[in-house]
Amino acid sequence: MNNSLQQSSANIDFKFDKKHIWHPYTSMHNAAKVTGVVSAEGCELTLSDGQVVIDGTSSWWACIHGYNRPEIIEAMQYQLTTLSHVMFGGITHAPAVNLCKRLVDMTSPNLTKVFLADSGSIAVEVAMKMAMQYWQGKNQFKKQRILTVKRGYHGDTFAAMSVCDPDNGMHTMFGDAVTEQLFAPAPTSSFGETLADNDTAALEAILQQHHHNIAALIIEPIMQAAGGMHFYSAEYLKAIRQLCDQYNVLLILDEIATGFGRIGKLFAYEYAEIEADILCLGKALTGGYISLAATICSDEVANGVSDSPAGVFMHGPTFMGNPLACSAADASLKILQTGQWQHQVDAIEKQMKQELAEAIEFEHVIDVRVLGSVGVIEMNSAINTGALQQAFIKLGVWIRPFGHVLYITPPYTISSEQLTTLTQALKTIAKNITLEQATADTFSNG
């Protein structure tokens, strides 16, 4: 970054930001403190006050290769000067074709048709629309409802919101505007364990009673992310696939958080050795450099949609298949296909298991769990996110806790020394925290 650009970036007008800019999940009354960032490199963020912190979140799990990765930057720079955007209706281009080739090659053999979307929430909306139009093509017009499990999260747009957890989601806020879906209890069988007795009994009862009206079941495979970072048994996921087949319901797997190696397999469904009818991808698709998502379906689903009365799939965003985003995603997937990510994630998992294990002995900690490059410390009470975020900065890290959990999802490229700094910060907060009185000053001395 040249000096003039760096100076301009560092000169952030925080007063304007506080008065006019709405950040995610915040109020415009007594707006929460925000942190200025002026540059990023590798696994580090440089703040507007000059402090450098290690990013423990990969910018909401997306920047898996770290920041300023040359291969992705060069691909985007080239694309920016040749074709940064063109409508996708009636037009195609090499970045989209190359990206979709990689996606078809990387995912399970039955997934052959790729719909490029703008964001994870839209990828879920697309999947739900696909499922409904599929059944229209089968002359089963009553199959319009979606079945899911509690404690899930699938996005903030209205259709996606309707299949988020009904108790801790936004259902009560928007009333009848949120489509009423069907919910089964969240899985109780833990990852690595056999299927608990009757864990799918309630789910099967719903399918048995309502399958004539159910278009699809949607679930996050293996890890319920925003629902508390819970890891559940692969046998539960396998049982779901069998139940969907038995009751003639499509299976939508939401791998927006878990896809592209985050929890130890390239895709989480590989733990259960199953295939989805429809797969949603996002977040890490571009390596976190620009927004893009994808919904991939089987030939069977595509044929059903095409046989529906509309004759076409009824969705078409303005920025669908954006060449700049496709070029970034293609470069990101090319990095993944070198295979280095597996060694990186395995090493992260091993180190986090060793370094976080002692936290289970802390007074306010009720669980410690690690899978792939996700490390979680679950507390016994709700967390003051704003206060603790500032406390983490004083410890030299960027970690954004939520709900009851302190967690990290670092870039795969993180060094062992940087990872130790992250795990040490997690333990410092978890050990010394008084949850009801959490303030940034409490942890100012690390």
Brief account:
The protein has helices at 3-10, 14-20, 58-61, 70-82, 94-106, 120-137, 158-162, 171-174, 201-210, 234-246, 299-306, 323-336, 340-356, 385-394, 416-432; strands at residues 37-41, 44-47, 52-55, 111-117, 145-149, 182-184, 214-219, 223-224, 230-231, 250-254, 278-281, 293-298, 365-371, 374-379, 397-398, 405-408. It is of the alpha/beta class. Helix 5 packs parallel to helix 12, helix 6 packs across helix 11 and helix 13 packs parallel to helix 15 (416-432).
Quaternary structure of the protein: single chain
- Domain count: the total is 2
Q: Architecture of the largest domain in CATH?
A: 3-Layer(aba) Sandwich
**What is Rg?**
22 Å
Could you name the CATH topology of the largest domain? Aspartate Aminotransferase, domain 2
Structural class: alpha/beta
Distance between the termini: 32 Å
Helix content: 25-40%
